[in-house]
Fold these 2 entries.
Entry 1:
Amino acid sequence: HSAYLQDNDKPSERFGLLNVTKITENGKKLRKNWTSSWTVLQGSQLLFTKGQGGATSWFGGAQSKPEITVDLRGASAEWASKDKSSKKHVIEVKTRQGTELLIQSDNDGLINEWYRALQDAVSAHAWE
Ligand code: I3S
């Protein structure tokens, strides 16, 4: 299946293992809970599954379902300010529905690619 191949020339279709925590849901503040999560960007959708199966547990497979689906239409993605986290390379995603997520990787190059991809996705679907 072609979807299993990472296509770096198509930044709006991307997947990989990232550290993720929700910090707000429907406008309500949540306690942080950083988890390693298999993350897929697919058009206007950002999907997460728990990363325990590593690269093999992509939810194109039978049993793995996304645990979080984030609608990027009307969302924003920006580098998080220092007060949001002590970690390096943190992206803050805010949805129109009032959910805020932090996405992080220690890998500089990787997180920069994600940043670019998320920015592209957000601007492509801003007015939907
Ligand atoms: O923003 P906070 O509350 O300082 O976030 C840290 C906490 O969530 C902490 O967990 P507990 O306070 O529940 O034990 C986490 O272990 C840290 O990773 C959180 O901070 P960073 O700066 O890593 O996002």
Entry 2:
Amino acid sequence: RRAALGAALSATMLAGSLGPALAADKMTFTMATAGSETDQRSAALANVFAPMVADFADYQPGYNGTLFAQGTELEAISRGNLTMSIASAQEMAQFFPEFSIFATGYVHQDAAHQVRVFNDPLMDPFKQKAEDELGVKLLSVMYLGRRHVNLRQTREEVDVQTPADLAGVNLRMPGTDAWQFLGSALGASPTPMAFNEVYTGLATGAVDGQDNPLPTVVDKKFYEVTKQIALTSHLVDLNYIAFSKAVWDELTPDQQITVQRAADAAAAWGRLKQLDLENNLADFIRSQGVEIYTPDLEAFRTHVQAQYAGSEVAASWPEGVLERINALGN
Ligand code: KDO
């Protein structure tokens, strides 16, 4: 690639114009996400990441699962068909089960805790394995937010105070084992469904509810087809900016630094935006006729943690990592 750039440079120098040849030689960074264009993580990559890498790369995003279906992005990166994605720990856990520790209910405490965990040496073996065995570099951690239980039923029909109240509730969860386990741990009957089908699933009653942070409830207009949100905060959810290791290796050292900085800057920008939305959307959602209330959080935390303790999921966690994550908490 560098040889090609050199040849292009000397050709344009002869021609006396540098710009067009450099532009022609730009790389393309394709990005796939199930999220919408207005999702703050998408906006962060478009508004912050893309301009920072624009000297050498064209950023080409595909939203709403149109480029690759939700859950297939990491494999696409690994096979060389995609440059980057907004990846979940649950998706990483499909390749490396130990990543389920970052997808476990009531482990991360808040956005700052996520950042401390991601930057701590405890993450190094996780990152290394993803790079070596999947060809995926995890550049930075993005904040999605506190996931809550959002149901079609009115509170008169289902009052969610403890996990027992979710018995028989057909709760849509994203489609991987780690998500389904979390749905069961909450006391519900989880149903896998792709993100872009959730609105219709709720509208038709194919599912009773879904779980996502408040900004997602607004972004996808789930408030139009649901009646209540129990603020379970069962998962302080994160995503990784996942980047092709093969493309990374084609970059010059300076470009690598720029890509890393751009990813960190986008993650920081998106985190602030998402936190701001998360803290300010409850009134709007209420005004749309959705009741929002706090259940017995201690009952949820205790029940969920008990489901993981001694489970097959927890058996995949490397010795001592949960304690190290907890030690980085408040
Ligand atoms: C979802 O499918 O509910 C979820 O919130 C799961 C997340 O891991 C993340 O992939 C997200 O969807 C998409 O980015 C769309 O917001």
